[in-house]
Each structure stands twice: as structure tokens, then as C-alpha cells.
Amino acid sequence: MNCKTIIRVRDLTKSYRLGDETVYALAGVSLDVAEGEFVAIMGASGSGKSTLMNILGCLDRPSSGVYELDGVDVSSMADDDLSTVRNQKLGFVFQSYNLLPRMRAVEQVMVPLIYSNALDREARAIEALTRVGLESRIHHRPTEMSGGQQQRVAIARALVTNPSVLLADEPTGNLDSRVSEEILALLQRLNEEFGVTIMMVTHESDIAECATRTVQIGDGRVVGDHPVEARRRARHEVAVAPPRASADATSSVGTITAAAPAAGSV
Amino acid sequence: MSFIDSLRVAIDSLSAHLLRTVLAMLGLIIGVGAVITLLAVGRGSQDDVQRNIRSLGVNLLTVRPGAPSTGGIRAAAGSRPTLTYEDAQAIAAPGGVDNVGAVSVEQNIGIQIVVPGGSNFATQAIGTDEFYSIVRNTPLASGEFFYEDHLRTNAMVVVLGSNIAQTLFGSLDAPIGQQVRLSLGRTGATFTVIGVMSSRGGTALGNLDDRVLVPITTMSRTLVRFRAPTGIFVSTINVQTTHPDTMPLVAESIGALLRERHKVTEDDFQVQSQQDAMEAAAGVARTQSVLLGSIAGISLVVGGIGIMNTMLVSVTERTREIGIRRAVGARQRDILMQFLVEAILVCCVGGLLGAATGIGLSMAVNGREILGQTMHARLTPDAVILSLLVSIGIGIFFGFYPAARAARLRPIEALRYE
Ligand SMILES: Nc1ncnc2c1ncn2[C@@H]1O[C@H](COP(=O)(O)OP(=O)(O)OP(=O)(O)O)[C@@H](O)[C@H]1O
Ligand SMILES: [Mg+2]
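^ inputs. structure came back:
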């Protein structure tokens, strides 16, 4: 196993002033994540999971504490340097996909490459889309894709710069269970086959079971940290492949019935 | 992020909101169009003035009473009379001043012209001599001009401007041989019309077609009755030189001769070349067109504010997009560039459309009769280039604040924006 520490967090706090009161969204989090881990972050609503992820993703700054990413202290970095870190070392996947309106999938995935002045943008974007299984949707716009497909575009966008860490805040929160499994299977495969370090926030323990480790957050603190004993395989192959094949084989009615629960559960 | 990338993003976002983009541009289009049109019309009227002055006679030196001033031709107008008809004759006389062609004097007075049993018309009489028609480059439409004899004998003859002839007699031929009465206050006399000048049209110096020409000697004897010991006062001596190159030399010699005749050491007159007059008049026209241009420039500023407003709306609307771009690695200056390029692009396109509008308007206006005046518009590349540069400047100036606001947004807040 690879044991290089990629994320090192010590006594991280994040406080907000609301009137005279100081609210601690994070009240001293310490955490180490090694390269190649797949960490599921769990906790009650309002416990500070998103706050932690935003700080780890360099989208927000901590009020105090140390955050070292890949051996570099990022908590005191200048804004431009943080942009570079986000661009090169981090990939962020949001619950609400956060794709740019009107853009084709391939263009969406090229956006991070624009900011790193990469040359072979299109080829790399297509490669990333292929990795998430969207090679047949590269010219689709967000409005022309399902939620699951949009989230895969977002994952491809997060991966295209080969980041050290992929951060995902409730990536399946807007998806029904079947599509959630697809996304989970994808993340699992990325973690296992490509060795991508993943941190994922989730509310559901069966989703967390797909990770290699779960971290429990409560009231802005780490209240639990366990390796996953029996890692669950996301039901990708069984769930996705056969319905698609049967839909092709039988009739269009199959497609409609397959789509119906997806629409209902959003 | 390269400039090309910024440009591509800008084009995408502008074309996605085409109507809004066009509306934002509208102020600028109108502003640039107005500036270009007004500058072209200004240039056109500048040309008109110059053409008029040039048509008054070529190689012309104008001598006027009064000390030379640095302020241009008008400053000295109405000065104490010092020049006389005899001065003019001395300049023209053999051995007077070399390289001189025709010399003619002018003295303007306001008079009433009365046709027996007919109408009555207030106008200007120009007291002049037999060389006026040559020096002023104005041929006769009918009849004949003054002779030397008319001047010598104080003949009671007049030559009418074409307008007066038309108005009082109905045609350019009818007045010949007819009597008219010119009166100035209580004095007055009856004259025989011997000629009618051809039409000159309005000029920068007033409409010569409304004037009546009288021999200067007759005018001084019968109308003004004012004669200095030194001779008959005149307001202008026009001196034609034989060649443009000799003008400075001739001006010098005229000065020397007049100082000697007036027995003064400091000039009590000024000699102006056609060039000077043209420059002074062109200066006036230039000031006018700059003034008009500045007024139109205000609409450019208004257009700029319109663009700023649209950009601010666009930034607010795209807060989330800004957050996403920041999340995947855009630096503040990338966002700044994106919005700045967008604003500049809007202004460039608006400027180009405005320039097209201005060019079209100028061409449409050129040669048209508007409010009784024939308009002339001359387009110059510098006006077009200037307004395009100003457009880009407006884009930078009014685009900067919205762009800076976009760039300053904190990534997490931009992402959370609903
Ligand atoms: N901008 C803010 N200003 C004030 N308080 C905030 C702000 N952002 C977050 N908080 C507070 O910090 C706490 C943690 O919020 P956070 O979004 O991290 O929770 P979470 O664990 O992600 O919850 P959920 O599971 O519902 O997404 C909450 O109590 C929230 O009210
Ligand atoms: Mg959250």
C-alpha cells in the first residue's frame, strides 16, 4: 500500500460571526488522508461536512489551523496560488453538478485546462469523458443530459487535470439510487484502477460502505474514524448494463418504464 | 488563460444574450454615429468657408485699418479709419509696390434702396472702384461695370447684386438703365443702374448678392460726405499679387509704403493674406465642430454607462459561473480579463456599428439642403479612428468596475449564489 500523506489537517476551525455570537462550523478538526484512500465523510446535517470540504477544496479559508496539501501549507497561500492549487491538485464535484450553462460536455471538461494553459485540451477532455463512460455524449449540453450524465461530466472535469485529490460533496445527493450506484461504481473504479484519492460526503451509510474509510463529523469535530471492514461493490455492472441491453433489445416501452422511477425520486 | 480564450468566452456569452447585447450597444452606436456625423459636417462647413474665401479672389492681400493684433481678423474690425482710396491708388501706381496686379477698395455703409413707385429695401452699399469685379473674382450678369471715368467724375451710377435685381426688378436684365434711389438717413441721391453682378451665393462673409456697388468717390461725395484731408476713407484695400510666392514680399512693401504715407512708425493698418483669413475662419469652424463633437461625446458617455449597467447585470447573473470557474482554477485576473474583454468587445462592435451609422449618415447628409443651407460633410479617417479608440476606451473604463467586482467575488460565495 501507498502510505504517502496527501492531506494533513491540524486543529482546523472555521467560525462565523452572527451578530454578537461566534458560530463554529468547524471546531478543531485534525485529519490525515493518505494517497489512494477513499474517505467517506458522514455526519448530521449542519455538522460541518461541507465547511470542511470547501476548506479542503481551497474554496474557503479556515479561521485557524493547519492544512497541508501534498506537503505544502495552503492555509496561508495567496489567492492566485490557491487558484493554481485548485486547478492542478484538486478536483471538486458538487451535489448540484455546477456545469456551465450552454456548453457542450467536451467544452465543460476543457475549462480547467484553459486556466492551466494546456495545449492538448480537446484530446485530454475526450480522454477524461471516456474514463467516465461518456465518450458518446461529448457534444451534449447540460440540458440534453440526464442528472447522472451531468454528474459524470462534472467528475470528468474534476479529473481532467489529474488532481491529487478528488473532493465530492454529496455527489449522489440529487440522483436516484440506481444512478447513484453508477456514480459510486465510477468513483470506486477511479480509486482502484487509477489510484485517485477521493473524499466524499454522504448521508447514507450504504454509500459510505463503498469507501475504504469513514470519518464521522459531529458539531464541527471528528467524532469517529474507521476503516470500512467489508467494502461493498457498487452495483454498477448489474444495475446499468442489463437494463440498457434489454431496452435496446425489446422496445421503447422499456426505456420509459426505466426512466419513470428516476424522475419520481428527484 | 490566453486572450483568445477570453475572447471566445466573451463571444459565446454575448451571442447567448443577443438582444441584451444589442440594447447595451445602442447608446454607443448612436453616440459614435453622432460624433462621426457632426465631425464630418463640421469639416464640410470648414471646407465651405475656405472655398468661399478662396472664391473671393486668389493671391489676395487684404489691408485693413487698425493695429495688427494676434487675435485674428475680427479683433481689429471697426477700428478708427486710417486707410484711404488714395493709399490704394499709391499702391497700384507705377513705382508704388512691385508685383501688384489689380488693387481695389471697399467701404461698406448701410443704406436704403428705393425703386421709384416701388419697394424699399435695406441693405449694404459697397463703395468701390473699377477693379472690384477683377479683384473679387465676380463677373457681371448683365450691363457693365464702373469705368475709370465713373470714379473720376463721381458718376451717379450703381451696380446691383443679383438678389437685389431679382427682388426689385424681377430679373437680372430689367434693372439696366433704371433709376434707383439710395438714401442714408436724410441724405440720398438717385442713381442709374449700369450693371448687375452674377450670383455668388451666401458666403461666410455675408451674402454679396444683396449688396449695391457704388463708385467710392460718388459715395463719399453724395452719401457719406465725409472726406479726410488725406483722402476718402475706406475700410478695406484688396491687393492682388501677381504670384502667390510674392505675397510676403508685397505685404512687406505695402507696409513700408503705407507707413511712409501715414507718417507713422507703428502700423495703423494690417495686411492679411488670404491664407491668414482662411486660417482664422477655419479656426472658428474648427472650434464649432469641436463643440458639436463634444456635445455628441456626451452621448458616448451615456452609452458607456449603459454598457456598465449591462455588464453589472451580467456579472450578477453569472455569479455562479464565476464561482465555478474560480473552483476549477481561474485566478482573479482571469475573471477580470473575461469580463473586461467582454465589455471591450461590446464597445468595439458598438463602435464599428456606430461608425457605419455615422459614415452612412454623413454620406446621406452630404449635398442635401437642410434648413435652406446646403450641407457638406467630409468624412476623415481620423474621426472614425478616434471614435473607435474612444469606444475601446469606454469599454475599458466602464467595463473595469463590473469586471473588478466579478473578480473580487470569493469563490465559495459565488458558488453558493442562487
Ligand atoms: N456563511 C455562513 N455563515 C454562518 N454560518 C454558516 C455559514 N456557512 C455554514 N454555516 C454554519 O456552519 C454549520 C455547518 O454547515 P455545513 O454546511 O458545513 O453543514 P453540513 O454538514 O454540510 O450540513 P448538510 O449535511 O446539511 O449539508 C451550520 O450550522 C451552518 O449554519
Ligand atoms: Mg453540506
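The mean pLDDT of chain B is 85. Residues A 49-50, 169 surround magnesium ion (ligand 2) (CB under 6 Å).
thumbs up if we can close this ticket
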